[in-house]
Write a structure and sequence with these properties.
The protein is an alpha/beta fold and 385 residues long. Helices cover 43% and strands 15% of the residues. The strands form two sheets. Strands 3-2-1-4-5-6-7 form a seven-stranded parallel beta sheet, sandwiched between helices. It has a six-stranded parallel beta sheet with strand order 10-9-8-11-12-13, with helices on both faces.
């Protein structure tokens, strides 16, 4: 195995920190010189020092094409590649994939790897769908290898002719780097007193049946259908105390309707936490009886395996990315993205013995298949392939 100068380019620092994280140290410890380009952040410098990586902040406009801004970014990335003798590029997220892969192609970087974190155009229509789909094809044509974060993402890319199958790689059962099931998503980190205080602080009682959701509050996540399913469950089970805990924040793109926002704010049985930092979110999963991800598209249902690592079974849609995140009837159930289907699947977990039986499978399944120590060796396999 020869030493590589690897440049990881990604839009957001938060994504580099939360979803790649210790992978930087792992690769450095295995003989690779690691570099990171992403948008600036107050924590970027300390993060780079912690993991022993060179870094350069770079503004990457996320939405659409911005000719002047993108050309400036392209020039800076090309200069960085030349100055640091980069021989491998690993590009994540749409804009960073475009800029990073184009820069790598122009500079003749011999090992260009892109990560397909989902199928962005899957819920788009018309001209916008055509443009995004075409851009995916162009970027893939410039890459030597495509790491699909789930098997279903790989299947869609093959079906739609985004790239040839010989370019596709999967890291074990999926994800871009797994999760830390020892130091982060581990129930033993938290005392009963801590969980009790957190539960009380959120206004939850011990006898509440808590349905959990974590994600961006956008239409693509199926949040509208979930709230309607929750309303149906309360109506059909008047003698049961049912709560819906929503973790996340509103976004401008694909924003949920004002009527849905009002329901979230006004329903006394909906606990809306807003954004919860990634380093403390694990405790919130412990409060849930069942986790629900009724999304119309994902790359991989990371929040589902985070919940699973904390011993929480899930109800998920059969959409791209979601379908890969559970073992049906073992760690969770599938549901259609309709209030009736979601309510039906969630209600099965009212049976304590059924819920506990499935919950007991969740953590071991996630640890065995998605712990980062299981996934990271596959990253080296892709680099050296």
């Amino acid at each position: 195995m020869k030493a590589h100068n690897i440049l990881v380019i990604i839009n957001l620092f938060g994504s580099a920190e939360n979803f790649i994280g210790g992978q930087f140290s792992y690769l450095r410890e295995h003989g690779y010189n690691m570099h990171l380009i992403c948008c600036d952040d107050p924590k970027l410098k300390s993060f780079a020092e912690k993991h022993g990586i060179a870094h350069q902040p770079l503004y990457l406009k996320r939405e659409g094409l911005s000719i002047l801004s993108d050309l400036k970014a392209l020039r800076q990335v090309c200069h960085y590649i030349k100055a640091n003798n980069i021989d491998t590029i690993m590009a994540h997220q749409a804009k960073a994939r475009l800029i990073g892969t184009l820069a790598g192609w122009l500079m003749r970087v011999p090992n260009r790897i892109i990560f397909a974190h989902g199928v962005l155009y899957e819920t788009m229509h018309g001209v916008k769908r055509f443009v995004i789909k075409t851009m995916d094809k162009v970027v893939s044509a410039m890459a030597h290898k495509v790491v699909c974060v789930s098997k279903s993402v790989a299947n869609v890319r093959l079906r739609d002719g985004i790239n040839y199958s010989k370019k596709n790689y999967l890291l074990g059962k999926g994800t871009c780097g797994g999760i830390d099931t020892e130091n982060m998503f581990n129930p033993s980190r938290f005392t009963k007193v801590y969980i009790s205080e957190l539960r009380s602080g959120l206004g939850l009682k011990d006898n509440d049946f808590v349905i959990g959701f974590c994600g961006r509050l956008v239409c693509d996540k199926g949040i509208i259908e979930l709230i309607d399913a929750f309303t149906k469950l309360k109506h059909d089970n008047p003698n049961r105390s049912i709560k819906l805990m929503i973790i996340g924040k509103n976004e401008i793109r694909d924003s949920i309707p004002e009527t849905t926002k009002q329901k979230i704010q006004l329903d006394k049985d909906i606990v809306f936490t807003g954004y919860v930092p990634h380093d403390v979110i694990a405790a919130y999963y412990i409060l849930m009886d069942v986790f629900v991800l009724p999304s119309y598209r994902e790359g991989f249902g990371m929040v589902t395996i985070e919940a699973g690592a904390m011993g929480v079974p899930a109800v998920v849609s059969r959409s791209t990315g979601c379908i890969d995140s559970i073992h049906e009837y073992y760690t969770g159930l599938f549901a259609d993205i309709t209030p009736v289907s979601l309510a039906e699947s969630i209600s099965k977990f009212f049976d304590d013995s059924y819920r506990r039986g499935m919950a007991s499978n969740c953590r071991s399944y996630v640890v065995e298949n998605y712990d980062h120590k299981v996934i990271w060796p596959h990253v080296i396999d892709v680099i050296e392939a």
